[in-house]
Amino acid sequence: MFTIIAATLFSAAFLLAMGTIVWMFAHYHDKMVAALQFEPIPHNPPVYHLRIRRPRAAQPLRRTASALPGNALAA
The organism sits in which domain of life (predicted)? Predict the structure, then answer.
């Protein structure tokens, strides 16, 4: 008797699961096909253009000894 009840419950659970699967395939068929055929937009990796700019300090002008003012020699 236990075997008959267990087999009946197992068969009922199996048929319920199969019915659910078939119902979901029938109901969501279009969405599943669309999801399988979906091609995402390819994203190119970002390209960074770096420009390192380090302005140099102005070089001081070198003055020679001959550039002394005229009144410095007169003293």
Answer: Bacteria
